[in-house]
Design goal:
By secondary structure, this protein is of the alpha+beta class. It has a five-stranded mixed β-sheet, with no helix packed on it. It has a four-stranded antiparallel β-sheet with strand order 1-56-55-54. It has a four-stranded antiparallel β-sheet with strand order 2-3-4-5. Helix 14 runs antiparallel to helix 15 and helix 18 runs parallel beside helix 20. The protein is flat, with a radius of gyration of 38 Å.
């Protein structure tokens, strides 16, 4: 049974190659930019329509997405009978649907309402933000059948039109939950109504039927305006467009002839209607002439699920079952469509994957869709398909020959090899294709097929040689100059990669095996026996291009002299070989056989060195790591095993949650493992925990399976879902700021916050820091000895020491000009307060406004005083400012400190407020400070801006020429400030320095402003020494942690180097 006693050696990282699934996309405009939200299984993705670049990746949901809708920052995904609301990349709430409603079929967001159509025959209206109960539930009726689609006709307020598989339509007012009208529709059409789309013309709706027809219907008069036959494009590649029975048979029967999507073109130009179905073609109809305009043949290699004409643009976007999104531009003289841009992945599961390059930052993959693709593990936009026609133009060539692009593709790749050495000089990738005797070269620098086709030459006249059997495997020399091709007949040929010229064949008995044979003789060899009896399974060349090794189903492993073709040695495997991988640097060759045993041979010594036994089903892939210490293997038993080569033991057996692995590739840096799986169209990446994990968690050798989940599109599942989306979330911000109407509130879900549902608690992504000190709002330390940061914005503490430079940079060029018609302002009282204080003298107001009753604007019975008295500028009269009061009160604690803040002014010769507060605190409870006495001051400083802090600091300066009392008070205030800073660095009762970076900024500002005063007073020097003694151990602790991390990074960096 799978175990979880130890962590997996390879943890799920992310999945590549998933673009879209069979769910219609949702398009919304944010300012001047348009974004499309697509489904990729259990995850949704957002692309920028301008370049089809990935913007956001949503969280992993509990089930497959069935419907999508988007509004501003919110994305709504139908999962089962529920609707999950996500704000940006986080789950925000769940609209719980009743099980009797059935799964969600379609979603529409209209204003403050969210409409969901359910397969059980219900239309449900929700108020945005109200997750518990829907606003209205409308039952469509049993005679209506199963609902399939809905749309909102333009100008029809609070109304929606619903179509069903019985062919009828219903118009509902979802605000009053009333059914307004039922349209008889098209009951004779098999499959009924399949899609609906509102047209630019009022009251006219586009209806896609199950028989392949598209109908323009006027819902106001219940009349059909126009009808277009075979709008689904069934059989467009047959003799005629209508296709008939032959076309439907080719597309998969009568049910596959249904129209699945419609879209109307708006703006200037010819009014067009685009329609598509399961055939993959898009038919475009001229609405003025009511005839066929053009056909986008083979727009997709599978059913088309969604079409969308961008408003006012001749641009059509489509998505299909071939895992692709495409945009078509209608800008030609005849306004026919051409492919503008697209994003695609494998339309069928990939079966081969290979890391390319020294860093392994690119992946080469080949799938059952006969496509050869290159993926980037860093930048998704760099992923693309390699062209199978030299110089491109495959679509144009297919059109000239009258065939499909699919017919022009090469067969499925069964073997591939790549070397980076000659990438810029000539073709550096070699592939073998199913059923094809020729091997093909590729230029990865141009992302296209190469100029040469490697085909064995015919045997000399009078000599009967092996037939040209299909190529089964390929290999490249490390120098990139030569390519090897093995065939099903047991033949192995060598070619020059630059010229494509055949350079000889390897044979067990040949004239070239004689002593002293030259390369020229080897090239002109007369064959009498092939390299193997039967299919050649694999080949490899050592790092010095001295030895070549090959294996086949004849149970033999043969080592050849690469240059002369001489057979060096033959090793009996004992079972038909299925897989071969050679580590060129160490000359260790791993062999997988039908007996489920993996053998490791030293080809230089020609002997067996290791055996690995443990798999219980057919082997699917093997590979030796770049350092030759690990051997990775996969099997149809669903396991992925990592073997330690020196000890010949199984390090770990991982039982994968997904389908069996069909191919694997470990990067040269050992950081990422790439796998392909049966019936999965993606490439999955796994992070090596020996590189990224904790060394203390390294697993011990064990054969006990460890259960491991599959990677997802969201990085590291739910925990790091934000990392995948926040990377490009600024695109949404830029789009909002460019809106002519200004940025709107992103919280349009009402006043409610995230749902407390267990599903949300299971994976909301990154959560805010919740451990805070209630008195100050500062973060609480996670452990007593940890240094804690303030988590304030960087600008708030970095700007403290650069305010003069910032003010000089922001100084206005011209003086302010008084406007011609200045508005009326209430007079304010002069002072240093942040918020304005209005002059509330009734007498002054009455004099300024004769004949008007101004008493309502003033407090009844308020004393009339002058502005000077109100500003508190008279010496000895005012109370200290809030900042100074909090600073002086910090020397005390509890009620005594509060009393010190509100105490009346002291007379000359009496105790200062701080001393009075401290004495009162000691007299009240006889206890010392517990470190919380500075909480009011710290809370105030965290709320103040850098300008306010600088102003308060400079207001504390001790000026020359002042009397002794003011000088003593100023010196004492500076001493209290230094004491406060030292207390923060020493920490509270737990001894953890708090608000470390914020206190550093305050300390630097205080020394800049009061440095001269500190040097001239002995009491301040003592306080500065105490501050330094508190700062030194705190910084030593932080510096020690940084040095530890630096050393570990340097150590592992040297290992990787």
């Amino acid at each position: 049974m799978p175990s979880q006693s130890q962590p997996p050696l390879f943890k799920p990282f992310r999945a590549l190659g998933y673009i879209t699934e069979n769910v219609p996309f949702a398009v919304q405009r944010r300012g001047r930019e348009a974004f499309v939200t697509v489904s990729a299984g259990r995850v949704w993705q957002v692309y920028n329509c301008a370049k089809l670049s990935l913007v956001l990746v949503g969280p992993q949901l509990r089930g497959d997405i069935r419907a999508l809708a988007a509004k501003k920052d919110f994305t709504y995904a139908g999962v089962g009978c529920d609707i999950v609301a996500c704000k940006r990349v986080h789950r925000y709430g769940v609209y719980r649907g009743a099980p009797e409603h059935g799964p969600v079929v379609q979603l529409i967001a209209l204003g403050e309402q969210l409409l969901s159509l359910h397969a059980g025959g219900f239309l449900v209206a929700w108020d945005l933000g109200e997750y518990k109960t829907p606003k209205a539930v409308m039952e469509l009726g049993a005679e209506f059948g199963t609902p399939t689609c809905m749309t909102h006709p333009d100008t029809y307020l609070n109304k929606v039109l619903v179509g069903g598989d019985a062919g009828a339509l219903q118009l509902w007012n979802f605000s009053t939950s009333e059914r307004i009208h039922t349209f008889a529709g098209w009951p004779a059409s098999p499959g009924g109504v399949r899609c609906l789309c509102a047209s630019p013309a009022l009251d006219v709706i586009g209806v896609g039927l199950g028989d392949g027809s598209a109908v323009l219907h006027n819902v106001r008069f219940d009349e059909t305006v126009a009808r277009f036959g075979n709008a689904a494009g069934t059989g467009v590649m047959e003799a005629g467009l209508l296709g008939g029975g032959a076309g439907r048979a080719r597309a998969g029967g009568a049910a596959a002839a249904a129209v699945t999507s419609l879209s109307f073109r708006t703006g200037g130009g010819t009014p067009l209607l685009a329609a598509a179905g399961a055939s993959g073609a898009v038919t475009v109809w001229d609405l003025e002439e009511k005839k066929l305009h053009s056909v986008l043949r083979e727009a997709h290699d599978g059913p088309v699920h969604a079409l969308h004409f961008f408003p006012g643009e001749p641009l059509l976007m489509s998505s299909g079952g071939d895992n692709s999104i495409k945009q078509w531009l209608f800008d030609g003289a005849d306004e026919s469509g051409r492919l503008l841009r697209f994003r695609s992945g494998h339309a069928a599961p990939p079966v081969k994957v290979l890391h390319y390059g020294e860093g392994g930052q690119r992946l080469l993959s080949a799938g059952r869709d006969r496509a050869f693709r290159c993926f980037s593990v860093i930048q998704d936009q760099q992923s693309r398909e390699l062209s199978q026609r030299p110089g491109g133009g495959q679509a144009k060539r297919a059109k000239q020959l009258g065939v499909t692009q699919e017919d022009m593709k090469l067969g499925r790749i069964v073997g591939m090899a790549a070397e980076q050495a000659r990438e810029r000089d000539w073709a550096n990738v070699l592939t073998a294709h199913k059923g094809d005797p020729a091997a093909y070269v590729w230029r990865l620098s141009r992302f296209s097929i190469g100029e040469h086709r490697l085909l064995p030459p015919p045997p000399p006249r009078g000599i009967k040689g092996p037939p040209n059997a299909p190529a089964t495997c390929v290999a490249l020399s490390p120098c990139g100059n030569f390519g090897l091709v093995g065939s099903a007949s047991g033949r192995i040929d060598r070619y020059n990669m630059q010229s494509g010229i055949h350079r000889g064949a390897y044979s067990r008995t040949a004239a070239a095996t004689a002593k002293g044979a030259t390369t020229a003789a080897f090239s002109a060899v007369t064959l009498t026996a092939s390299a193997h009896e039967g299919v050649v399974v694999g080949m490899g060349v050592d790092s010095c291009s001295r030895l070549m090794v090959s294996a086949g189903v004849d149970k033999a492993l043969r080592v050849w002299n690469f240059k002369t073709g001489k057979l060096v040695s033959t090793l009996a495997v004992g079972s038909p070989v299925t897989h071969l991988h050679l580590h060129s640097g160490s000359a260790l060759c791993a062999i997988g056989a039908d007996d489920l045993m993996i053998r490791l041979y030293d080809i230089e010594a020609a002997r067996l060195v290791r055996r690995f036994v443990g798999h219980t089903d057919r082997l699917t892939a093997i590979q030796v790591s770049a350092d030759a210490r690990w051997l990775l293997s996969a099997s149809m038993d669903g396991s992925l095993r990592v073997w330690d080569v020196p000890s010949a033991r199984c390090l770990q057996s991982m039982s994968l949650a997904g389908p069996p692995v069909t191919s694997l590739s470990l990067s040269p840096a050992h950081d990422l493992l790439a796998t392909t799986h049966a019936d999965s169209r993606g490439i999955y990446l796994w992070a090596n925990q020996n590189v990224f994990g904790d060394a203390a968690d390294a697993p011990l050798p064990s054969d006990t399976p460890v259960r491991v989940g599959m990677p997802t599109l969201a990085v590291d599942g739910d925990d790091d879902a934000e990392a995948a989306g926040v990377l490009h979330s600024a695109v949404f911000e830029a789009a909002d700021s460019s809106d002519d109407e200004g940025p709107s509130s992103s919280d349009d879900e009402g006043g409610e916050g995230p749902s407390s549902d267990a599903e949300l608690e299971a994976g909301d992504g990154a959560r805010p820091y919740e451990a805070v000190v209630p008195e100050t709002g500062a973060p609480a330390p996670l452990a007593p000895s940890l240094v804690t940061l303030s988590l304030l914005p960087r600008s708030q503490w970095q700007s403290l020491v650069h305010l003069e430079a910032i003010q000089a940079r922001n100084r206005p060029i011209e003086p302010p000009k008084k406007p011609e018609a200045a508005p009326f302002f209430l007079p304010t009282v002069a002072g240093l307060a942040r918020d304005p204080v209005f002059d509330t003298d009734p007498a002054a107001a009455a004099a300024a406004n004769p004949g008007e009753d101004v008493s309502p604007f003033f407090e009844q019975g308020a004393p009339s005083t002058s502005r000077v008295n109100k500003a508190g500028l008279k010496r000895g009269a005012p109370a200290p400012p809030p900042f100074m009061a909090a600073l002086r009160a910090g020397a005390g604690s509890g009620p005594a400190a509060a009393a010190a803040v509100s105490a009346p002014p002291t007379k000359a010769g009496s105790k200062r407020p701080a001393e009075a507060a401290a004495a009162a605190a000691v007299a009240s409870d006889g206890r010392k400070s517990d470190g919380n006495e500075w909480a009011p001051l710290l809370s105030m400083l965290r709320r103040m801006t850098p300008n306010e802090i600088d102003r308060e600091m400079r207001a504390m300066q001790v000026l020359e020429g002042t009397d002794e009392e003011d000088t003593a008070q100023g010196v004492d205030d500076i001493r209290l400030l230094l004491t406060f800073l030292g207390a923060q660095l020493r920490g509270g009762a737990d001894g953890a320095p708090a608000n470390f970076e914020f206190v550093q900024g305050l300390t630097q500002l205080a020394l800049q402003v009061h440095g001269d005063t500190v040097m001239s007073h002995a009491s301040l020097l003592e306080a500065a020494q105490a501050l330094r003694s508190a700062l030194r151990p705190a910084w030593k602790r932080v510096d020690g942690l940084l040095q530890d991390v630096r050393c570990m990074v340097s150590y592992f960096g040297n290992l990787q180097g």
